[in-house]
Design a protein that fits this description.
Elements: E1 4-11, H1 19-23, H2 41-54, E2 58-61, E3 70-71, E4 75-76, H3 81-95, E5 99-102, E6 110-112, E7 119-123, H4 124-128, H5 133-149, E8 156-158, H6 168-183, E9 187-191, E10 204-208, E11 213-216, H7 236-244, H8 255-261, E12 267-271, H9 272-276, H10 282-298, E13 302-304, H11 307-315
Parallel strand pairs: 1-2, 1-12, 1-13, 2-5, 8-9, 9-11
Antiparallel strand pairs: 3-4, 6-7, 10-11
Helix pairs in contact: 2-3, 2-10, 5-6, 7-10
This protein binds zinc ion (ZN).
Length: 326
């Protein structure tokens, strides 16, 4: 039997600065501790150790102008040049071989006026909600261009929040045009939608005109690791209970198993801040336990894919991937 694609869907990584901190309207966790503004590179190294050990693949966002605090080419305010360079080269040498790296639009915070570079004091998801391709294309092209200039090879992007959902047809055209303009590729992917608790949850061909093609790749679970941000509990019991939501210790329960049983692809989402757990990295331990359980119970049923691998799988047999009814 052919193995089913599985992928880790990772939102919000950026060099140094936490985009969760910059767009969150509080500076403390739910249990009252100061929220970390910056993440040390040790968190990235810990993540790389885990993905390399277990062969994990998937999607890894790099926010190009994270929190309106600089950009991935010129550096980040409050984060040393040495650490910045180390973050970028580590993602390139240790993450990019296994993960599709793509922008999560420009800032994950306030929108930017592209011609002037000035901040528009509206979050970019709200800003995008009534725009058409003529406005969205330069915005998304800027995101891909910054990643390209920083040395990232990219064929797709992630919506910060639900960026573009109100104008999805325009958004899809803008993504396609941007990938073509920056990388000269007719094919691209994007991640905007969640397909949760629906049978047969798979990616689909969102647009195809015979030349250009856009594949929509959803997440098919919730981010249960998020809760590790707001607690100091890092006990083995807690770690195991969070991992259970994805896959239980006996390999028979959890969303990853449920998605598989209903014919879908387990594309399980978490966030950079979820893995870092406000400095405790409890989420990294959860991720490692999930990977161990997948290896133990599902290695004959699933195979790790990057988002670009999934895009190519869909393109190789488009008829098998029709657009679902939401
Ligand atoms: Zn995000």
């Amino acid at each position: 039997m052919k193995k089913v694609p599985i992928a880790l869907v990772l939102d919000d990584p950026a060099p140094g600065i936490s985009v969760y901190y910059t767009h969150h309207n509080k500076t403390v966790t739910e249990d009252g501790r100061p929220l970390l503004e910056y993440n040390p590179n040790s968190t990235l190294f810990e993540f790389c150790d885990i993905i390399e050990k277990y062969g994990i693949k998937g999607k890894f966002s790099v926010v190009p102008m994270p929190g309106n605090r600089g950009d991935v080419v010129h550096g980040i305010e409050g984060f040393s040049k040495k650490d910045f360079d180390e973050w970028i080269t580590t993602v390139q040498s240790r993450v990019m071989p296994a993960f599709s790296v793509g922008p999560e639009m420009l800032t994950h915070n306030y929108a930017v006026d592209i011609p002037s570079g000035k901040i528009i004091e509206i979050n970019e998801c709200t800003w995008a909600s009534d725009k058409d391709r003529s406005v969205l294309t330069p915005y998304i092209t800027k995101a891909f261009s910054l990643l390209k200039e920083a040395g990232f090879n990219s064929r797709g992007c992630t919506s910060p929040w639900s960026f573009g959902i109100e104008v999805e047809d325009e958004y899809v055209q803008a993504v396609s045009q941007s990938v073509f303009d920056v990388y000269k590729d007719n094919n691209c992917w994007y991640y905007l939608r969640g397909l949760r608790n629906v049978p047969n949850a798979k990616p689909w061909v969102e647009y195809d005109d015979g030349k250009r093609c856009v594949v929509s790749i959803p997440a098919t679970t919730h981010d249960y690791i998020w809760q590790t941000i707001d607690t100091t509990d890092s006990s083995q019991e807690f770690i195991s209970s969070v991992a259970d939501r994805y896959i239980t210790a006996n390999g028979k329960g959890g969303d990853i198993v449920k998605v598989l049983e209903t014919g879908g692809y387990p594309l399980f989402i978490t966030h950079w801040q979820s893995l870092i757990s406000n400095g405790l990295c409890t989420g990294m331990k959860v991720l490692e336990l999930i990977a161990q359980r997948i290896e133990k119970h599902l290695s004959n049923r699933v195979e790790w894919y990057s988002y670009e691998d999934i895009m190519n799988l869909v393109l190789s047999n488009k008829d098998n991937y029709p657009k679902p009814n939401f």
